[in-house]
Amino acid sequence: MDCLDSNAKPLLISGMGSLAPPGSGGHFSSNKDDAAMIDRHTLGALFESQKHHLNHFFDNLDLGQAQAFAQALVDAPGAIFFSGVGKSGFVANKLSQTLASLGFIRSAYLPPIDALHGDIGAIFPADILVLISKSGSSDELLNLVPCARAKGAYSISITSVDRNPLAAICDMNVHLPLEREICPFGLAPVTSTSIQMVFGDTVVAAIMRVRGLTKEQYARNHPAGKIGKSLIFKVKDLMKKEGDLPLSKEGDMIVDQLSELTSKGCGCLLVVDAENHLIGTFTDGDLRRTLKSSREGIFKLTVGEMCNRNPRTITAEAMAVEAMQRMESPPSAVQFLPVIDNQRLVIGIITLHGLVSAGL
């Protein structure tokens, strides 16, 4: 017999499938008095406890083991696979992705169950298999090690329990000192996973240093993120040019250039001479100030008379992030920069809006 009412509609919770919270009877309470409240002092005490346990890890970590592990990754002749079960599996997945993002080490996450059902075919002789486990007693990992060894892989375990079976069968073990979990029962992996992540990320940072990874190399593997964009994009990649430039001659009357000032979407005019050398800039702010001070006299003024003849500029080969920094620098921020060459010829304009739209 079906125990579910066929007419009942599941109660959807964002990020939690279709189940209501335990003990809710399928309903949510809108009364804040019915909700459990987090005590600030208790929370602070937990953070202090976590800090204490993390310090225990730092104070007792065997740096010799850590160095041997890091060196094994640096010297790896093949690919480096990470594996783990449960929350340790999430850490293993994250560390493999971080290592792969460096660009000079082939690294991937190998789910232990999938590995035992065919995915171990990705492992070749001279590869390294790193297995992360708090207890070192997960059957999935214990079953995976001999299979990986049969394929010629070198196995390394990262564990926190002394004399565990996983460490006993691996070629290398790194012990991560764990005093206890801060969960009320000392069971949920809320401290051990933090230790695993800190250890792994620190080793990755050491590898970046010893291999002399440059910002440019790192950026090549992060083209879509802000990191990559700030290290890859140059001014020439984002600037407006040619027909999109709001150009004006210094002898042009201000009133005759209002269309050019507003139609190009830059909020300014680039004032140039007959050969296109930059003379200065005239902004919509300059227009407002001129109108306020000169009133009807504005009809007799030229752009050259009221323009800023010492504007901030930048070159096309400069990094786009440098353009943003220059726009935001004291004494006051600006919304654009004329792009000029070494002869002060105007070749483009880069705007704050364009930089923001590009994700910078």
UniProtKB/TrEMBL annotation:
Keywords: CBS domain, Isomerase, Repeat. Residues 69-213 form the SIS domain. One of its GO terms (molecular function) is isomerase activity. Residues 239-297, 307-360 form the CBS domain. NCBIfam families: kpsF. Belongs to the SIS family. GutQ/KpsF subfamily. This is Arabinose 5-phosphate isomerase. It comes from Platanthera guangdongensis.
